[in-house]
Amino acid sequence: MGQRGEARRVQAYDGELGAAVARAQEGDEAAFAVAYRLVQPGLLGYLRGLVGDDAEDVAADAWLEIARDLRRFKGDGAGFRGWTATIARHRALDHLRRQKVRPRPTALEQDVLDLPGPHSTHDQALETLSTEAALALVSGLPRDQAEAVLLRVVVGLDGPSAARVLGKRPGAVRTATYRGLKRLARELGVDGVTEDAPRTLGDST
């Protein structure tokens, strides 16, 4: 299944996920297992993009924290995916610090006020990719682009939710996603992806 389809599949489960989380907060262990089953694949894919082969261990640490703090969570299924992604990202960054690996600095420092939606790039490039192939290609992107693409496509978050996870403005995440997908499309040799997108002040190359 292409990554675009994967994101849609993840989002389609948000109603079931929200109901499971609500039951889990009341102590229903089976419901927590349902929430885990729905969230873990995307979360693990995101972590593989951040820490590689250590993703399973980092995910385990993240789920310990998720279980511990579950009663504090407030929100729906989509909100739960964003909350768990935030926790997982913090654990991943802790892991990288312990390894004394400094994340690459974000190249994009200014928000772009308006860019056209990358629907063509999404549809053409991401439908071409399997999960493993996508992660291999995404790992070659600049860090800000890689994280944005992973959160939007693999975890299935919308722009504002991904921005909250990353602590960035939504426009910055939108731009990083657009650039990352455009670069992936070029590497795949996808037709119809132009080199130049309309820019506004604040856009940097």
Automatic annotation (TrEMBL):
Gene3D superfamilies named among the record's database cross-references: 1.10.1740.10, Winged helix-like DNA-binding domain superfamily/Winged helix DNA-binding domain
Keyword flag NAD: no
Residue ranges annotated for the RNA polymerase sigma-70 region domain, each copy included: 36-100
Keywords: Sigma factor, Transcription, Transcription regulation
Record-linked InterPro entries: RNA_pol_sigma-70-like, RNA_pol_sigma-70_dom, RNA_pol_sigma70_r2, RNA_pol_sigma70_r4_t2, RNA_pol_sigma_r2, RNA_pol_sigma_r3/r4-like, WH-like_DNA-bd_sf
Top-rank taxon, per record: Bacteria
SUPFAM superfamilies membership: Sigma2 domain of RNA polymerase sigma factors (SSF88946), Sigma3 and sigma4 domains of RNA polymerase sigma factors (SSF88659)
Domain RNA polymerase sigma factor 70 region 4 type, residue spans: 133-184
NCBIfam families: sigma70-ECF
Entry similarity comment: Belongs to the sigma-70 factor family. ECF subfamily.
The protein's name in its UniProt record: RNA polymerase sigma factor
